User: Which sequence fits this backbone?
C-alpha cells in the first residue's frame, strides 16, 4: 500500500502536465484563430478597379449588399454571402433563396428602395453604369459604393467578375477557389472533347428563339465559345452577337445538331422543332438530334457556366459525355 501511495504524486504530475499541455494547445488555437480573424479584418480597406475603369475604395467588409443583376446575385450566393444580400433584381431566379430577398426593380431599378435598405455596396455592371448613370449617381451621392463589374461575354471575363466581387466583399479566397474549380472543369471537358475526331465534330445550330423570329448565337457569345471548346462548328460563327436568321437560311445550313435554349418558356419546344414544316430533311431533325439546354447556364456570366458547357457537351457528344 505504501509503495502504491508513492506512485500517486507521479501520476498526478503526469496528469497535470498533460492538462497544461492541452490547455496551452487550446490557448494557442484560440490565439491563432484570433490572429487569422485579425488578418482577415486587415484585408480592408481594399481598392479595386471596376468594369468602368473607376477606382473604388471599400473601407470595411460589406455587411449589406444589393445586387442589380442575376449573374452578380448568383456569384454573391456562391461566395457565401446569403446573409449579406438584402436586395436583388426582379429577374433573379437562382438560387432559390434569392427569390425571398427584397426586390428592387429591373432595368429601371428603384433608387429610393435601394437607399432604404442601407446597403454598403451595390453590385451593378458596366452597361448599367452607362444606361442608368443618373440612378447610380444618386446611390453614390447617398454614400453607397457602386461597383460596376465588367460586361462579360467569355469565360475569362467571368473569372474576372467573380474575382472582383470576391475582392470587394472580403471573400477573395472563396472567389479564387470557385475560379480554380471552373478552370479545372473546363480543361477536363476540353481534354475529353479533344479526343473526338474531326469527322465526328458536328455543325451546330443554336436557337435562342422559336420561329417565326429566329435568333441564334454568333461569335462573341458564351455559346460560341462553348462550341469552340468542344470542337464543334457553330453555323453562325461568322456573325457577331445575336443575329436574326430566316427559316430558309437555317434549313439551308443543314445542321447536324440543333440546340434550343427557350424550353423554359415554350412548352414541348423539342417536339415542336421535330414537327416543323419544311425542316423534314434537316439532319438534326431526321436523326433526332434536337436538344434543350438551360438558357441561364449557357448565357449568364457566373459559376454555373461550367454546368452549361457540360450540358452542351452531353448534347453534342452523348456517347463521350455520359
Assistant:
Amino acid at each position: 500500500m505504501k509503495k502504491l501511495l508513492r506512485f500517486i504524486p507521479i501520476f498526478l504530475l503526469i496528469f497535470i502536465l498533460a492538462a497544461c499541455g492541452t490547455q496551452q494547445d487550446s490557448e494557442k488555437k484560440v490565439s491563432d484563430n484570433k490572429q487569422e480573424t485579425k488578418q482577415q479584418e486587415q484585408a480592408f480597406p481594399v481598392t479595386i478597379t471596376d468594369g468602368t475603369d473607376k477606382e473604388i475604395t471599400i473601407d470595411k467588409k460589406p455587411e449589406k449588399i444589393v445586387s442589380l443583376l442575376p449573374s452578380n446575385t448568383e456569384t454573391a450566393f456562391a461566395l457565401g454571402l446569403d446573409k449579406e444580400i438584402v436586395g436583388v433584381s426582379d429577374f433573379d431566379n437562382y438560387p432559390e433563396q434569392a427569390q425571398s430577398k427584397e426586390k428592387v426593380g429591373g432595368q429601371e431599378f428603384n433608387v429610393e428602395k435601394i437607399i432604404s435598405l442601407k446597403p454598403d455596396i451595390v453590385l451593378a455592371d458596366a452597361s448599367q453604369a452607362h444606361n442608368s448613370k443618373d440612378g447610380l449617381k444618386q446611390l453614390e451621392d447617398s454614400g453607397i459604393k457602386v461597383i460596376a463589374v465588367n460586361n462579360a461575354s467569355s469565360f475569362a471575363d467571368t473569372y474576372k467578375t467573380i474575382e472582383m466581387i470576391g475582392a470587394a466583399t472580403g471573400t477573395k479566397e472563396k472567389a479564387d477557389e470557385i475560379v480554380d474549380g471552373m478552370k479545372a472543369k473546363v480543361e477536363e471537358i476540353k481534354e475529353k472533347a479533344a479526343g473526338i475526331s474531326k469527322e465526328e465534330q458536328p455543325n451546330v445550330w443554336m436557337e435562342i428563339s422559336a420561329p417565326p423570329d429566329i435568333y441564334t448565337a454568333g461569335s462573341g457569345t458564351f455559346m460560341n465559345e462553348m462550341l469552340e471548346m468542344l470542337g464543334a462548328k457553330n453555323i453562325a460563327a461568322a456573325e457577331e452577337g445575336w443575329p436574326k436568321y430566316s427559316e430558309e437560311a437555317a434549313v439551308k445550313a443543314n445542321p447536324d445538331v440543333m440546340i434550343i435554349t427557350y424550353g423554359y418558356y415554350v412548352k414541348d419546344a423539342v417536339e415542336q422543332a421535330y414537327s416543323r414544316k419544311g425542316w423534314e430533311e434537316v439532319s438534326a431533325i431526321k436523326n433526332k438530334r434536337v436538344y434543350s439546354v438551360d438558357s441561364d447556364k449557357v448565357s449568364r456570366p457566373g459559376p454555373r457556366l461550367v454546368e452549361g458547357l457540360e450540358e452542351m457537351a452531353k448534347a453534342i457528344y452523348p456517347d463521350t459525355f455520359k
Summary: Confidence is low (pLDDT under 50) at residues 1-24, 34-40.
